[in-house]
Amino acid sequence: MVDLELDDGLAVITIDRPQARNAIAPETMEQLHTALDGAQGATALVVKGAGDRAFVSGGDLKLLAALRTEADAAAMARRMRSVCDRIATFPGVTVAVLNGHALGGGAEFAVAADIRLAASDIKIGFNQVALEIMPAWGGAERLVPLVGYSKALLLAGTGTILSAAEAERIGLIDRVLARESFDDEWRAIARQLAHRAAGEIKRVMKGASTDEAVDAFARLWVSDEHWAAADKAMNRAK
Length: 238
Prior knowledge:
Keywords: Fatty acid metabolism, Lipid metabolism. This is Enoyl-CoA hydratase. It holds the Pfam family ECH_1. The protein is an alpha/beta fold. The chain contains eleven helices and ten strands. The strands form two sheets. It has a six-stranded mixed sheet, sandwiched between helices. Strand 1 and strand 2 form a beta hairpin.
């Protein structure tokens, strides 16, 4: 099951498959597409797993074992890549909330987001090589700009599994949060990102031209939200 929560501009998509440690099955891919359709218009997007044991434990091997031809394997990879691509290109800021371990395809799902927040006791790893396969959902390509080519190749080539602290040190995870306050902290950060300006900042950082960047600023400058915030700031300064 994939749940969608909409909360005043913040969309939260949760993979809830406790029986499979939130592993992704073919049906899950379709449900993720449906949830992403429902999240359109949100100013920020969170993706997470249910519970505290697994963010996403990769693909559901019991169900994906039915794929026995190259054509079937390629079709599955393209379908899940399209989910990750939609997360990566979502107009608002996207946040992967690592409530539990993110392994194999789970790590790929995590790096599709703009930002990764992790509970202090989780582990993350691109360990597909343990099954004599490779990342297929865009994770290898997205890992390189995060940690650099040589580190990315070492991690994915050996299947090394990192602690949250190790992953934060190399830039794979952006912030590690205490387990005791994890739910409150990730939601507070996500709420801070759920506004139009953050989405425009994201677009500019992704490579907007000078004209596009200036136009984005000008649109925000004349918005009601800007003038309301400016009035509050000026009143506080009196």
